Amino acid sequence: MNAPVTVDGALAGRNIGWFADKGIMKVNAILLLSLVSSYANGYDGSMMNGLQSLDEWKAYFHQPSPSTLALLNSIQHVGQLIALPFCAWSCDRLGRKQTLIYSAIILLGGVALQGAAQNTGMFIAARGIIGFALVGFFNAQWNSGAIVAAWTTYGTFRIPSSWAWRIPSLLQALSSILQLALCFCIIESPRWLISRDRDDEAHAIIVKYHANGNPNDPLVGVEMEEIREALRIDREISMNTSYLSFFHSKGNRLRFTILLVVGFFSQWSGNGLISYYLTLILDSIGYTSEGTQTLINAVLAIWSLISTGFVAFFIVDRFPRRTLFLVSTAGMLISFVIWTALQSTYEKQMSANGTQNPNLAKGVLACIILYNTSFNVGWTPLQVVYVVEIMPFNLRARGLVMYSFAVAIALIFNQYVNPIALTKLKWHYYIVYDVWIFVELVVVYFLFIETRGSSLEEISMMIDGPEIKEKMLDNVAIATTNVPHIPIEDNKKGGVGSSINVEHV
Q1: Of all helices (H) and strands (E), which one includes residue 435?
Q2: In angstroms, rounded to a whole number, what is the distance separating the alpha carbons of residues 486 and 434?
Q3: Rounded distance, CA 374 to CA 364, Å?
Q4: With contact defined as beta carbons under 8 Å apart, do 135 and 83 qualify?
Q5: pLDDT by residue (tens digit) across 142-160?
Q6: How many other CB atoms are there within 10 angstroms of residue 413's CB atom?
Q7: What is the Rg, in whole angstroms, of the alpha carbon atoms belonging to the chain?
Q8: First CA to last CA across the chain, in angstroms?
Q9: What CA–CA distance (Å, rounded) separates 297 from 18?
Q10: With left for phi above 0 and alpha for psi between -120 and 50, is residue 384 left, alpha or beta?
Q11: In 3-state terms, what secondary structure has residue 487?
Q12: CA angle (25 as vertex; 493, 379 as ends), nearest 5
């Protein structure tokens, strides 16, 4: 029997569901610990929404104006921007694990300063430090952090002292405390280990977590050889990788365009209004009490977690990535257009006779929920995953840095402009987003490629063209057929009848 030369071939006939493989379940648990850092990211947006509703916070910081609110929110993303040049270097030189640990330590320092802030300057400085630490954290646990922050501010608004906002500020450190306590459980990336000539360690990790301890599983050999071959080709294409490598080939130029598009679109779709300035929106439709506002913020956080969780468990792996992005963007456009119409009608009635229309206000809330649900279908679970999937290993860290750069620039602009424009232009500002989301839909339709069902190396072959694909498959085939075959028992759930010796150590 011919040895498999792709991951799909090695997995043929196996049960690869969520709970079918103990090794993959362990990997997912470890990834959850690694990605729990993004709890702090979600916590931050929801916390700032909540704090803006607290009378104690507003009084302590002298009723911040729209421009001050803009600075308080955008400074965090300035911190991210400053940290970006160090991110790729740290990931490539120190490894993913150590970079994560150092970021957690920096975040603890920022949170401590934020919780102890005595004036606006200290609060701004703390948020800049937090942004510096958050540069490498993404969206996997965003909603868990948002829920904790939202319900914390809903509970603490009753405290008649500065602890009403200091307690929510300090709880942002929970994810970093958990990570530092359990950092010994985190494993290093096999690709990074092989790139550092630590093949034995990479082999051991793949055997343990991808083959459940069986070194003769053909999947081990295929994965090791695919990684080696991908690294070899990457080095051949660019001996000294730099950011200019994004412009060295047609495939890399496509990657660069997509990652910038994903970065900007993920933040320029109107979601920043809800994430950081929900208070201003609620004020504009008559919901002005701090209890009502913090409760709405808390309920929205729970709904976002439910919708994101449903998509992550039941939708993401069953539908093509591109389809999910298109459905998500189309849903966002429809809900935002209706939101704009309801908001304009409400504000026009208020201007004409000074009366509030509670039905229109409830309609706006419904549109916000529909918008969040649509965003969570594609953009929340897939934006970082998609960027990682299209990047070759030698550009993956730099690709994530460029993605983070695009996100930071978009956020700085958005978080500074949004409160000022929303205050001055009112409902007219929503029209800008209506037009922009339509542009996003067109770009996603014509630019995005499909990545579902392929390994990272196979996606690289698809983007780089047929010549690279043929070359890699030929070399993997040679490497995996030059070792003797070792028979193994059939798996009752559909295993491979024979295998090869795959100990590349």
Answers
A1: helix 428-447
A2: 60
A3: 15
A4: yes
A5: 777 888 889 999 999 889 8
A6: 16
A7: 24
A8: 24
A9: 32
A10: alpha
A11: strand
A12: 110
Quickly tell me which residue has 């090869």 as its tokens: 500
CA–CA gap between residue 171 and residue 50 (Å, rounded): 13
- Distance, in Å, from the CA atom of 430 to the CA atom of 135, rounded to the nearest integer, reads 29
Q: Which residues pair with 500 in a beta bridge?
A: 485
Write down the pLDDT at residue 141: 61
Tell me if residue 18 falls in helix, strand or coil.
coil
Stated length of the chain: 505
Q: How many CB atoms lie within 10 A of CB 30?
A: 15
Angstrom CA distances, 40 to 44, 105, 128, 387, 484, stand at 6, 13, 14, 21, 50
Residue 237's nearest CA partner among 399, 394, 456, 93 is 394
Q: Rounded to whole angstroms, how far apart are CA atoms 304 and 327?
A: 17
Q: Which residue has the tokens 């990997």?
A: 27
Supply the DSSP symbol for 486: E
| Closest listed residue to residue 474, CA positions, set 487, 463, 486, 461 | 461
> How many Cα atoms are found within 13 Å in the side-chain-facing hemisphere of 265?
32
Cα distances from 248 to residues 1, 7, 232, 251, 387, in angstroms, run 40, 28, 17, 9, 18
Q: How far apart are CA 31 and CA 337, in angstroms?
A: 38
pLDDT of residue 338: 97
Q: What is the DSSP string of 224-263?
A: HHHHHHHHHHHHHH-SS--GGGGGSSHHHHHHHHHHHHHH
Q: What is the DSSP letter of 491?
A: P
Query: To which H or E segment does residue 485 belong?
Result: strand 485-487
Pairing relationship of beta strands 498-500 and 485-487 according to DSSP bridges: antiparallel
What six digits make up the tokens of 203?
A: 């082999």
C-alpha dihedral sign at 279, 286, 162, 142 = negative
Q: Note the pLDDT tens digit of each residue in 165-179.
A: 999 999 888 888 888
Instruction: Give the span between the Cα atoms of 226 and 393, in whole angstroms.
Output: 11
With H, G, I as helix, E, B as strand and everything else as coil, classify residue 269: coil
Alpha-carbon distance of 25 to 175, in angstroms, equals 21
Here the contacts of 246-255 (C-beta below 8 Å, separation 24 or greater) are 246/395, 246/398, 246/399, 246/402, 249/464, 250/465, 251/460, 251/463, 251/464, 251/465, 251/468, 252/395, 254/449, 254/463, 255/390, 255/391, 255/395, 255/399, 255/463
CA-nearest of 377, 385, 306 to 335 is 377
Judging by beta carbons within 10 Å of its beta carbon (0-12, 13-18, 19+), is residue 482 exposed, middle or buried?
A: exposed
Positions in the chain whose pLDDT score sits under 50 = 136, 140, 483-505
**Measured at the alpha carbon of residue 467, what is the angle toward residues 462 and 473, in degrees to the nearest 5?**
75
Q: Please say whether the beta carbons of 45 and 253 come within 8 A.
A: no
Tokens describing residue 304: 């976002």
pTM comes to 0.72
E-only strand ranges, 148-284: none
